[in-house]
Amino acid sequence: MAPFLYHTNRKSHFLFLFSVLILSQSLPPMALTNPLSPSSSCTKGPGPVIPVTPLVSFLVRVQETALQTYGKSNFDPKHYVDLSLKSNLSTTVEAFDKLPKTENGSVSVKDFEGFIGKYFNDAGDDVVYAEPVDFVPEPHGFLPKVENPEVRGWALEVHALWKNFSRKVSSSVLHHPELHTLLPLPRPVIIPGSRFTEVYYWDSYWVIRGLLASKMYETAKAIVTNLIFMLDTYGHVLNGARAYYTNRSQPPLLSAMVYEIYNRTGDVEFVKKSLPPLIKEYRYWNSDIHELIIRDAEQCNHFLNRYYAMWNKPRPESSTIVCSSLHDEELASKFLNDSEKQQFYRELASAAESGWDFSTRWMRNSSDFTTLSTTTILPVDLNIFILRMELDIAFLAKTVGENAITEDFLRASQKRQKAFSSIFWNENMGQWLDYWLNNGADCEEPQTWKAENQNQKVFASNFVPLWIDLFNSDIHLVEKVTKSLKNSGLLCAAGIATSLTNSGQQWDFPNGWAPLQHMIVEGLSKSASMEARTVAKDIAERWIKTNYVAYKKTGAMHEKYDVEKCGEFGGGGEYTPQTGFGWSNGVVLAFLEEFGWPKDKKIDCD
Predict the structure, then answer these.
(1) DSSP readout, 289-327?
(2) β partners of residue 596
(3) Angle between helix 530-554 and 149-164 (nearest 10)
(4) How far does the signal peptide extend, from start to end residue (predicted)?
(5) What's the CA gap between 262 and 14, in Å, rounded?
(6) Is the preceding omega at residue 510 within 30 degrees of 0, hence cis?
(7) Does position 1 have pLDDT exceeding 60, yes or no?
(8) What is the pLDDT of residues 357-384, one digit of tens each?
(9) Is 317 noted as a catalytic residue in this protein?
(10) Is the pTM of this model over 0.85?
């Protein structure tokens, strides 16, 4: 049944896309004010802040004391804000305050370890194993295009990792949430792995793509249910399922998850339940903190979006170590007054909201981390995700007979599609470029588009618009962008590099990341251009090879890979390289499902 639905829904989506192109000629243009979002498009003053819970604030104190006690060597700040209490907070705080401390705030190792052992459970104890209800060792019809027995055996091992990383919150989290920073999610989750023992927002899209290849439809739906729980509880989908993430989101891909699950299952009831939360999330991303107006050369106003975290202090999960062991407060010490420091902390948190934490993409000066300016950038990929959200909601609403909603969101997508041509597109480069806002971006008046405000540095995100059918269906556009990609310097021995700058940050060269490989490859492969499809297949094969060889060498899948060297995992950034790993597993399975692997084709690095 599922394969039939998959192809049937693909056909219906093609017909829907065709209708979008027709309707875009007939629907009346949107007025200056976006009817789907609040009227204000700017923020005033210092910007909103969502405070953390008293438990998080206390755990930051414990974290700071641990740093003073143990030093920076092998210190992971996230460990301490993931601890859960054995008894109530007031009792634990009282015991902590009675610990004998030196002048610099440190506690003897013996006293500190005794305190931790007496009053805390280990980090990670708040999640327990959950047997997936739909896992089987080899699903019927699993990866039919994979004919090579060696590759099939590896794919089954990757498939089995879903079972290894399936978790649910402990009964203590459900019954005593005040003792935990982990949120009381109602359904089981797939965790990324290693230090990440909670579900993450944008990771979940590629986890779901892998689960669908593994025929684990109920597990995929459970992840969406948990994300909707966060949306209903906090007003947005959180970066991750921890109390210290309540002040920011991550790239908005919830609608894409719902669409992909419907595409495989045909579950209309699932769509009906998901549609209202999707509209709620759309309004969040088009609220005053995220939305600004840019006036193009033809005096047309475009509502576009940025990342903007609701936080202006050091991040609890990383407050004591970032950027070559410099912590947030040390970096902020460059700034002379509190308002500048608070703005820098907001830029840090907003970069984390982007998922690209960290990259020279967000820096005014690529050699100076303190020039991080995430909130003054209109990112190409964020606006593509929101365009996809508009198209997904329109399609899903049509599926359940909500035709008025469909028309509203088609109008919104029509407007945003035009913005990509006039604001982001660079004809000379054949790429879509991030747009730098003028200083003082938090203003009520539209900003006038300037060519020099396009960031002409090359990032993999410049090619992400190909992921959207509105763009990959234009063969002439695709061929121009494909040529640009081939000449960009991003295509390497083992995949697509994130940028051309080797800064030591993890979202820069030479690291390659599964989500970027997948979006660009999927976009190219959907095109009618033979050249684009050939490039897509070549990138996918390189990525599959490097994942396979690294797995055989290390026994693990990795969070990121060094695209200069086949079979090597990536490095850099604010924590040690992680294994597991949710989205890497999902993209490998998705690529093998789409492209397969011939029986006699070698998979070793050349």
Answers:
(1) TTEEEEE-TTS-EEEEE----S--S--TTTTT-BTTTB-
(2) none
(3) 70
(4) 1-33
(5) 15
(6) yes
(7) no
(8) 999 999 999 999 999 999 999 999 999 9
(9) no
(10) yes
What is the rounded distance in angstroms from the CA atom of residue 583 to the CA atom of residue 145? 21
CB atoms inside a 10 Å sphere around CB 25: 7
Domain boundaries, the chain: 47-123
Cβ-based neighbour number of residue 1 at 10 Å: 7
The residue type of 366 is: S
The pLDDT score that the predictor gives to residue 419 is: 97
For the record, the structure tokens of 392 come out as 């997904």
Mean pLDDT, residues 52-58: 97
Q: What is the pLDDT of residue 330?
A: 78
Task: Work out the average pLDDT over 491-514.
Answer: 98
- Contact between 159 and 166 (Cβ < 8 Å): no
559 part of the active site: yes
Q: Can you tell me which residue has the tokens 């703005």?
A: 343
Over residues 287-336, the pLDDT tens digits come to 999 999 999 999 999 999 999 999 999 999 986 544 433 467 778 888 98
Q: Tell me the three-class secondary structure of 365-401, residue by residue.
A: CCCCHHHECHHHEECHHHHHHHHHHHHHHHHHHHHCC
Note if the bond before 358 is cis, omega within 30 degrees: yes
Measured CA to CA, the distance from residue 446 to residue 294 in angstroms comes to: 5
Gap between the Cα atoms of 404 and 306, Å rounded:
27
What pLDDT does residue 192 have?
A: 93
The pLDDT score that the predictor gives to residue 319 is 60
Q: What is the DSSP letter of 449?
A: P
Interatomic CA distance for residues 372 and 358, integer angstroms = 9
- φ/ψ (deg, to 5) at 451: -60, -35
Residue 541 to residue 495: CA distance in whole angstroms: 9
Q: How far apart are CA 330 and CA 148, in angstroms?
A: 53
Q: Which of 260, 291, 357, 442 is catalytic?
A: 357
Residue 573: closest CA among 519, 514, 520, 498: 498
| 108's tokens | 């003897």
> What token pair was written down for 323?
């950027």
Active-site hit among 328, 402, 559, 593: 559
